[in-house]
Design goal:
0% of the residues lie in helices and 49% in strands.
């Protein structure tokens, strides 16, 4: 059974940092492209970042470029999202997802599996 479990969310002040982690199980993690998305109240789920099988290729939404870094450890079956210089508009539930496409995908519909999400709140 495919399982994705996010952790690391919380409350942080503007300008602060958080590191999210996604633990994967039930499939061969190293053979799938993965992604991070987020969903704020009343809004659609949106792309944040994605990473290739080996981690050599990454891509980011313009809104987080230069502040967030996606990475993965295939030996540990984990994917992380380091978030720096957080802003109130980064407040959302963050989800990790798995896509079966052999390339970076930007639409939630192209991801077949999701974790339960972890809440990130940026507020003073």
């Amino acid at each position: 059974e495919v399982q994705l479990v996010e952790s690391g969310g919380g409350l942080v002040q503007p300008g602060g940092s958080l590191r999210l982690s996604c633990a994967a199980s039930g499939f061969t993690f190293s053979t799938y492209f993965m992604g991070w998305f987020r969903q704020a109240p009343g809004k659609e789920r949106e792309f944040v970042a994605a990473i290739s099988w080996s981690g050599a290729a990454t891509n980011y939404a313009d809104s987080v470029k230069g502040r967030f870094t996606i990475s993965r450890d295939n030996a540990k079956n984990t994917m992380d999202l380091q978030m720096n210089n957080l802003k109130p508009e980064d407040t959302a539930v963050y989800y990790c997802g798995r896509t079966s496409y052999p390339s970076i995908q930007y639409r939630p519909r192209d991801y077949g599996y999701w974790g339960q999400g972890t809440q990130v709140t940026v507020s003073s």
